[in-house]
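Table 4 source record.
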Amino acid sequence: MSDFVIEQTRCTPQIIVDSKEGKIEISGISNPINAAEVFEPVLKKLEEYVDDPPDNTVINMKLVSFNSSTSKWLIYLFRKLVQVGRYENKKLVINWYYDKNDSDSYESGEGYECIIKNNSRKINPNAVEFYYIEFDELPPR
């Protein structure tokens, strides 16, 4: 059972954090007027999470679209999550889902991968893996 859930609305994503299983998913559309309202509680949860993470943390990023304020918050979340690498034998896996017909969604992933790898280099570069996964079909908007 997930211990933290934010339900999706027409302009905010669904966010699920399962601390026990080490699974985090952010999916849908993220175009909130005030991204801090959506993502500050998530960041607080992740601050607790990185203090005692399971051996493997898997993040499934399935955003269909997102605005620039969401992008800023995603960077904050990723910077927090790379801290799981400070513990021996802990791994962080990011699965970046993208629409094969939308080169922007793939390129966004490349930008985050660069930021994540730069931040993890300071902690433990071997603790982070980043994968690209094509959507066969876009999730409903």
